[in-house]
Amino acid sequence: MNEHIKKVRQNTSQNEGLIFERSSPGKRGYRLAPLDVPEVDPAQLLGNAVREDLGNMPEVSEFEVLRHFTRLSTWNYAIDLGMYPLGSCTMKYNPRVNEAVARMEGIANAHPYLPEALAQGTLRIMRDLSDALIEITGMDAITLQPAAGAHGEMTGIMMVRAYFDSKKERRKKILIPDSAHGTNPATAAICGFEVENLRSNHRGMVDVSALASQMSGDIAALMLTNPNTLGIFEEDIHKIADLMHEKGGLLYMDGANMNALVGKVRPGDFGVDVMHLNLHKTFSTPHGGGGPGSGPVAIKKVLEPFLPTPVIYSKQDGTLALDYDRPQSIGRVKAFYGNFGMFVRALAYILANGPDGLRQTTEDAVMNANYIRKKLEGSYDLPYQAPSMHEVVFSHRLQSPKGVKTGDIAKRLIDYGFHPYTTAFPLIVADHGAIMIEPTESEPKEELDLFIDAMRNIAKEAQESPETILNAPHLARVERLDEVTANRKPVLRWKKP
Amino acid sequence: MNEHIKKVRQNTSQNEGLIFERSSPGKRGYRLAPLDVPEVDPAQLLGNAVREDLGNMPEVSEFEVLRHFTRLSTWNYAIDLGMYPLGSCTMKYNPRVNEAVARMEGIANAHPYLPEALAQGTLRIMRDLSDALIEITGMDAITLQPAAGAHGEMTGIMMVRAYFDSKKERRKKILIPDSAHGTNPATAAICGFEVENLRSNHRGMVDVSALASQMSGDIAALMLTNPNTLGIFEEDIHKIADLMHEKGGLLYMDGANMNALVGKVRPGDFGVDVMHLNLHKTFSTPHGGGGPGSGPVAIKKVLEPFLPTPVIYSKQDGTLALDYDRPQSIGRVKAFYGNFGMFVRALAYILANGPDGLRQTTEDAVMNANYIRKKLEGSYDLPYQAPSMHEVVFSHRLQSPKGVKTGDIAKRLIDYGFHPYTTAFPLIVADHGAIMIEPTESEPKEELDLFIDAMRNIAKEAQESPETILNAPHLARVERLDEVTANRKPVLRWKKP
Amino acid sequence: MRYLPKSDSDRHQMLQEIGVPDTDALFSHIPAEYRLKRDLKVPRQMGESEIVDYFRARSSEMVAGYGIMLGAGVYYHYRPVVIDAVVSRGEFLTSYTPYQAEITQGTLQAIFEFQTMICELTGMEVSNASLYDGSTGVAEAAMMAVRVTGRSETVIARSVHPEYREVLRTYSQHQGMPIHEVDFSEHGRVDLKALDAAITDQTACVLIQSPNFFGTIEDVAAIAEIAHKKGALLIVSIAEALSLGIVKPPVEADIVTMEAQSFGVAPSFGGPHVGVLATRERFVRQMPGRLVGQTVDKQGKRGFVLTLSTREQHIRREKATSNICTNQGLVALMATVYMELMGREGLKELAIQNLAKTNYAVEQFGKNAKVLFPGSPRFNEFVIQSGVDPLEISCKLAGQKIVGGLPLKKFYPELGNASLWCCTEMVSKEQIDAAAKAVAQ
Amino acid sequence: MRYLPKSDSDRHQMLQEIGVPDTDALFSHIPAEYRLKRDLKVPRQMGESEIVDYFRARSSEMVAGYGIMLGAGVYYHYRPVVIDAVVSRGEFLTSYTPYQAEITQGTLQAIFEFQTMICELTGMEVSNASLYDGSTGVAEAAMMAVRVTGRSETVIARSVHPEYREVLRTYSQHQGMPIHEVDFSEHGRVDLKALDAAITDQTACVLIQSPNFFGTIEDVAAIAEIAHKKGALLIVSIAEALSLGIVKPPVEADIVTMEAQSFGVAPSFGGPHVGVLATRERFVRQMPGRLVGQTVDKQGKRGFVLTLSTREQHIRREKATSNICTNQGLVALMATVYMELMGREGLKELAIQNLAKTNYAVEQFGKNAKVLFPGSPRFNEFVIQSGVDPLEISCKLAGQKIVGGLPLKKFYPELGNASLWCCTEMVSKEQIDAAAKAVAQ
Ligand SMILES: Cc1ncc(COP(=O)(O)O)c(C=O)c1O
Ligand SMILES: Cc1ncc(COP(=O)(O)O)c(C=O)c1O
């Protein structure tokens, strides 16, 4: 059953319980320096606000903690271990120099309320990153404050709203294509907009005629991902932008897929008014098992008055300062200035690449996706034939007659030594059967070939022994987990037995 | 067959070829800063000493290198993953603060030939460590220069030689018990001594009467490990020392097993004249897959003139300096001052423990060994019944009738999720069947219980299904490797096919 | 480019297999007028050593080795090195959100432990897996209260971190969520009478912070009573997580939202930090953010999965409880490691040290300046009223490698020359003495 | 104690199971007079933050951010961060010597790659897994030559690192291995005539260093001819491994012993660094130190093992080829990572940069001082003869954050005020210019 697996072998993997199961009163994982001021009586100082004890917080030694997490870590897949073909997630190499520079004392230890004179280094990093991102996107200004992509969307759409408010226009709706990521409609809702769905055409692109008929004075903006979530560049992007602008609307671009464009095409050049970037995708900051991210929002001049506060500016003497006095600002979206540590990493990435490296990166990313597309066509159904950029989306149409769905194929990939591709979207792939593959530029040809081989083998298995796939994974530490029960009777924390 | 295994489960483990198999001309894992001085023509500068090319050195990208080693690393067992019960190796927790402080810029970047005025920090570290180790051993002086235990042995025995040379005595032999580690006799040979074997008695200790009769004016020293390699404290240590001293000989102690003594017993107090320490055992510096180590040699006053140069001393003004002018010195045993990075780690360990922590550490180490002894008696033969200190040595006598040897049991432990114990020595365990177990203080009770459970299960398997053991490991990435062929037709490097 | 694992011959071969003559062909469907025909104007490709030099230069433009007496939402606490040892492991660092549970059990179990400890510390029943930070946590909590109660208004104390309040205002501005602020009394705590008056039958929640922005501990029980009496939920925001080591958890609250930066996370000029939201079991389906739950695999072995995701944007889209997707995973892991290292006793011992330092500082400062809000219990911050502009004090202290307190004028004009000082275990007695002296004159 | 994973109740339970009343009972068989009844006089147990503070204080007593123009066996080269990322992984850091091959394949394969690259770089056929350092490597190589040839004497060039020669003297003193030194010529290279004269039919080996201690490249081919003519082996020691990027490897040698600190290893006040010994296949059974060999497992899968261990002390005891056991494993891994990152082109490019820096420095210094040994090819070091004591120059430069060259008087009294300077890629043009200026007067 597993004889075609080339990428992995079986090995032992350490078991490890919950940390609470290791706890025993009196074990210690810390030791404090002695107090150099007089001791105090907390009960006296705090009165009835004093806490008695810390319940079931664990008591373990330092070594147990280190070993605990070392063992846990070995249960994870990671880019460092192999290809992570999650479409829309841009799981690329996270350079280690980024981690090193982010930990330099003056940087890691900087308090956000340091007087500006003592914070020129961090302000300079923000300014240098801002300048680079503005150039890369072809936009006019930027805020680094949002903490992730969805947060950037919210910031951008609020600026759209502020823009219309400033013109005393009350537009109620945001247009969102059916291929969009879930954060797009969720964001529109938070910003008080209604969501209007925009159909895609048979080529997987915005249906321009539908747009023409739907666009109206009631619509504030179109939230477009470009290349879209099928990995397809909206070839009619100029028409789309024009249509929006003609009716006074704005074009928002979800920049999740900028890894297809950097150094080759600039959104600012094709009519985008506002967009966010995901530094944790395109600019190599690590995903960290869920975050942190960073979602800067780049804008055209017209939106500048609405930027969140504060905004960095240069003073006469060349030093940098923060401007809080911006009456038209949408306000803050986060305390302080954003996920600064991610700015450091993204800037380090840009410096490591330079203009030539950034362009080559994009070219390699697109080449890798097209290589996979070419090699898997035939084995998997390609619902949309338009040229692929940095990712390619197949469907499970050829496998579903045997009962094998995209989610099953994904689980079987685990046995073959790969992390699954994205299964959850885009929803416009019929029957929700998307197989969304983004290799990024970071994969060598050998790794791609192993992936292709695995996918082809699984396609064969789907015909010959579908139950192998339906019961996958077979070789992971755990078998398929019961999500239904987890949902029905949520156990969300450990409790002392 | 594997249903009793509790500590591990199977999981996938990434394959990875040799780096050379990834190489392709033009890939790069580096980029240099541009040159700020005029370029040169190497051929012109070097003439016929110029090199044409670098043969088959690899060409790979940075990410491939990182992923290569990440994958390789997952094929290793490590203390961080679980108990590493190698007897005589003291595989204890390697605290992470040690690593952090050793990488501080002023420390890691210190050139050994910095003028003394600019090197007070590193000299202070050496002095503070020296003081602590002298106190811990109860000796009078120390050199930190030797790079590992064997190197320390050589340094110590050379000082013994120099001592007799200074007295114009020509003693030809070193006495070494049959339980000794291989480096002891190998060292004696390098120092130009003949090795005379000293028998152990039935209790696994030095046979004092044999010693009395063997000791003569021809014998320079006895090299004794205490506790010895059976984990047994030489109870007659005072008689042994007296016997040596009476006949003008010296007592050398191999301090590999100091983890049984620190804070409880000091070799200097029981008559040792010279001894080495293994900072990579007792003092928590990491073993690193084979090294680096550090083997300071502590001595009594009489040997001080013979210390390797240089020796640290305090100047009038309180600053530290190096004394090179020591006419009776045995000379250098290593360039510079020793494996300084290990001094940093060992000192950090001592500071983290303090007197109470060091003592508790020793007590826990001895308790852990005795716990294992108690629980495995019955399942395995205990050839020597004397009390155990930090390690316990069983034999395979109960298993060998079924053809199961210590080396086989060791391999089967791998399936149970443990690194094997030491099998190679002590040679005095009959039939070379030693099962030498040193848990160290770093193992929690739960881990010990799992180990005991595994060992007991294997003992049962040895009776019921010996072939399971003989063919082990079954669950590791590779099965048992063919060492015979490796020896017969050595392939010691990759060659371009 | 050293990150790219391709040689030119690899590229050539791949393009051939794809069936295109060159890379440009892969971009030819993009309208030509949008294709960039020049190099981006970003700095040239740098060697790694140059990158390090660039950031070293930036780092040296900052303060190093200073005693920093700033708090105000970002706290200096010692970060045990084990934290970085753990989060630097590629298996955690370079893993994605654990949607595929079978090969991300490490991350999932760690989050489950995080959720458990947040519950233990806050006295709540369920905790999510993280939010962006303490400020957005406040906004998410208020939105959640609106969903839970069906009411629309929020009454927030002015003693909540001013930037948290700003964020709440931004989030709420287009959601029909009026915000009312309630002032603090001369004790530096919520003015209970004003609070009582501010709550209406449209009040979804009362939102306070404790210890509040002035370091003062609010009377949570009293406030809860007032809120609950009128059917509003009580949300307690905690900016200094370490306070939970010695300050009674806000068990009377319905929602607790916390910034956990104090738990082993570097200040890093304000982020990434880690927010978290905890609440009562009965509100779980209205919570924002990811949740990890325990389950079993086909063999009955324990395992963990992301759960209750029908609350989330990737399923519910515009009806989701929040738009959050990427959260602060790795930072939550840092906090998890920290909480496990410090544990039951360490958090308490450290919190008491912070109390002692601050108490000592208050005594010393009190000799030379007016310490505001006397009599109210405080954790590790306090406000002083000085004769001169606090910036002058800071200038004086800079020479002694001390950064003084935060001037409050910007946030609270009525407090004049007041400034907010913080004394954690990282500030020495000598530094406190020096600062107290500087405040005199 | 925070490293110990036991509570008192764990201890109590275990002692009970062992059957002893308390811990002291476990030590009661040790004669009472030797049992320590007091605390050790070492500093009290410290918190982690205090340990960090202690070492930070020591670190600040050193130079930071200086341009250091010292070489002499320890070289400043940029260390890519990937090295520490790799060696910090617990799987490498906390693993033992790979005696148990089946669960240490990671370490074993890495060493196999190390051995391969050392062969590629040095032109030798086999390499061991490491020795302590370059100095002990010289001693081990000479001892090996004695075993191989059955002869006893070593002829060593005075242009070999003085401390390496000292170590050789220490090792050889009791092994009946006379050492003869041969002087250098005015070209700063081995005096070939004197060498020829020094070799006898008892000469086991001629031992040179290239680039030698003065940075000068020896005429290895000529020396090999002289040595081989008289049946002696040629041992070439290399202290600056990077030179192999552009200097012809000593293919004429029989044994090459190298210090590989330049390959990504921190100076660390002189250690841990990493020695290695490479030689001809026919001498493999006389080599000291561990060797990794390729083999297959029962399934025929490729794997690696420690091999030819009958040479070693744990098998052969007093007849072993060396007493070495623990070697420099993790440091060899650093060098392996470095060699793979830099690779075929990087080592060359970097070596040429070093050549260029040094060439520039020689030109600049030459304007103000006498550069010794002109005409001989050199890599990245050179010797100048100054009017004043070189320590004076260093003092002048300290103010400009530069550490000057190494005074040679101690090692070569006849060279008077000579000093040895090194210019790697880490020294900037500005620093070279400043130093050249200081040398003037
Ligand atoms: C297309 C798209 N848009 C938006 C997002 C949301 O970004 P974030 O997770 O950073 O909030 C994602 C993330 O997966 C995405 O793929
Ligand atoms: C008892 C004993 N002596 C000496 C040594 C040699 O020490 P090293 O490996 O540090 O050279 C060892 C190492 O395993 C040992 O166990």
Average of per-residue pLDDT values of chain A: 97
Strand content of chain A: 5-15%
Q: Can you list the strand order of the major beta sheet of chain A?
A: 2-8-7-6-5-3-4
Poorly predicted regions of chain C: none
In spatial order, strands of the major sheet of chain C run 2-8-7-6-5-3-4
Oligomer: heterotetramer
- Strand tally of chain C: 15
Secondary structure elements and pairings:
The complex is a heterotetramer, with two copies of chain A (497 residues) and two copies of chain C (441 residues).
Chain A: E1 8-14, H1 42-46, H2 62-73, H3 96-102, H4 105-108, H5 120-137, E2 141-143, H6 149-166, E3 173-177, H7 183-190, E4 194-198, H8 208-214, E5 219-225, H9 237-246, E6 250-254, E7 274-276, E8 297-299, E9 311-314, E10 320-323, H10 340-376, E11 392-395, H11 406-415, E12 434-437, H12 445-464, H13 466-470, H14 483-488
Parallel strand pairs in A: 3-4, 3-5, 5-6, 6-7
Antiparallel strand pairs in A: 2-8, 7-8, 9-10, 11-12
Helix pairs in contact in A: 3-10, 5-10, 6-7, 10-12
Chain C: H1 8-18, H2 48-60, E1 67-68, H3 81-87, H4 90-93, H5 105-122, E2 126-127, H6 134-149, E3 153-157, H7 162-172, E4 179-182, H8 192-198, E5 203-209, H9 220-229, E6 233-238, E7 255-259, E8 275-279, E9 292-296, E10 302-306, H10 313-316, H11 329-368, E11 370-371, E12 381-385, H12 390-398, E13 402-403, E14 406-407, E15 418-422, H13 429-439
Parallel strand pairs in C: 1-13, 3-4, 3-5, 5-6, 6-7
Antiparallel strand pairs in C: 2-8, 7-8, 9-10, 11-12, 12-15, 14-15
Helix pairs in contact in C: 3-11, 5-11, 6-7, 11-13
Describe, in plain words, how this protein is organized in 3D.
The complex is a heterotetramer, with 2 copies of chain A (497 residues) and 2 copies of chain C (441 residues). With 497 residues, chain A is of the alpha/beta class. Chain A has 14 helices and 12 strands. Chain A has helices at residues 42-46, 62-73, 96-102, 105-108, 120-137, 149-166, 183-190, 208-214, 237-246, 340-376, 406-415, 445-464, 466-470, 483-488, and strands at 8-14, 141-143, 173-177, 194-198, 219-225, 250-254, 274-276, 297-299, 311-314, 320-323, 392-395, 434-437. In chain A, the strands form 3 sheets. Chain A has a 7-stranded mixed sheet, sandwiched between helices. Chain A has a two-stranded antiparallel ribbon with strand order 9-10. Chain A has a two-stranded antiparallel ribbon with strand order 11-12. Chain A is globular and about 75 Å long. Chain A starts with 7 loop residues before the first strand and ends in a 9-residue tail after the last helix. With 441 residues, chain C is of the alpha/beta class. Chain C has 13 helices and 15 strands. A 7-stranded mixed sheet of chain C has the order 2-8-7-6-5-3-4, sandwiched between helices. A 4-stranded antiparallel sheet of chain C has the order 11-12-15-14, with helices on one face. In chain C, strand 9 (292-296) and strand 10 (302-306) form a beta hairpin. Chain C is globular, with a radius of gyration of 25 Å. The chains are: A alpha/beta (497), C alpha/beta (441). Chains in contact: A-B, A-C, A-D, B-C, B-D, C-D. The interface between B and D is large, with 200 and 199 residues. The complex binds pyridoxal-5'-phosphate (2 copies). The site of one pyridoxal-5'-phosphate has 14 residues of chain B, from helix 6.
